[in-house]
Amino acid sequence: MIYTKSMNKMQNNIVSKKVGVGTIFVFLSLALLFIFIPHLSLFQLISPLSSNRQDVLSQLLPRLTQKPNTYRLTSPYSLIGQASADTVGSTVNAYSVLDFDSGQIIDSKNGEKEVPMASLTKIMTAIVALDISSPSEKFVVTQRAADQIPTKIGVIVGQRFTLEELLEAGLMTSANDAIEVIRDGIDTKYNDPVFVQAMNAKAEFLGLKNTHFTNPQGFDSTEHYSSASDLAILTHYALTNYPLISQIVKKDYIQLQANGDHKQYDLYNWNGLLDVYPNVSGVKIGNTENAGTTTIVKSERNGKSILVVLLGTTGVLERDLVASQLLDNGFASTIGLPPIDVTEKQLRAKYATWKYWN
């Protein structure tokens, strides 16, 4: 009996030591993985991640692919591109000017080049959000959303916003906190960090060849980029398939009135050409250290719609001046209209109307 008890005790000790050694081995292995593959998260390592995420994304794919994209860009039909590339856009990283309806490129510089695009990202964010949610669905503000860096509207933890309200803040004021509320809400709803994956799946579905997303706001990252051509295709898709996006981006100002869910918010559209250049109807602006200032602008004159995608200018004033000049060139080359010749004085007067503009 004593022998048997001793043996049992020894076996238990051996099992305990084996478990202890095994546990140590597992943690050492995990540590090595984090060292050599730093982008992995603990969540990725301890859960059946790849199959789980694939399952969630596959559930969303039917919604992401409901609206087909047949829009394609065609080559320039004149030499205006080379002429203006030497003058108007000489300091700009990349741009494309095109006939919005036909997709014909009027003017281009580095149109296929992969570059940072800053908050132009939010066009895709809005598309994906509307694909997998509804404008009236409400989202709760998380601490992570409240902690986002500017540009932000100052959401407060626990507040509730409809998706439509969050898209107004994200597309007009370019509010990073509002966009994070959307991402957090979708990821929580599906119990999976699927939102950015859905953005990339949508980009692939649309045939965007030089685009990849790592976040829904447009923060700088080596793996977060697009091209002027891809953004032109994305913008046409957004404006022709999502009436809510088209309605929001043409507005100069919206007030979200205080209610039981949130306080009052004043939303200004930072597009400097709204109400300055004729018949501008959006679309989006952006600004980060790596991307510089960026913009996408659409205008209609005499039945012709011209779209300008502008990436990598040195400041807001240059952004809007160059964009207006490219619009002028687009209308001149297609239907022979005289230039509007937007001035610095006009733009500064416009900026002065923005209550929170510094």
Layout of secondary structure:
Blueprint: H1 2-36, H2 42-46, H3 49-64, H4 80-85, E1 94-99, E2 105-109, H5 122-132, E3 138-140, H6 143-146, E4 160-162, H7 163-172, H8 176-189, H9 195-206, H10 228-241, H11 243-249, E5 253-256, E6 265-268, E7 280-288, E8 292-301, E9 304-313, H12 316-335, H13 344-351
Helix pairs in contact: 3-9, 5-7, 5-8, 5-9, 7-8, 7-11
Enumerate the spans where pLDDT stays under 50 for 5 or more consecutive residues. 1-19, 21-27, 29-50, 79-85
> In CATH, what is the class of the largest domain?
Alpha Beta
Q: What's the domain count?
A: 2
Strand residue content = 15-25%
Binned, the helix content reads 40-55%
Oligomer: single chain
Counting H and I runs of at least 4 residues, what is the number of helices? 13
Arrangement of strands in the largest sheet: 2-1-9-8-7
Number of strands: 9
Instruction: Specify Rg, calculated over alpha carbons.
Output: 25 Å
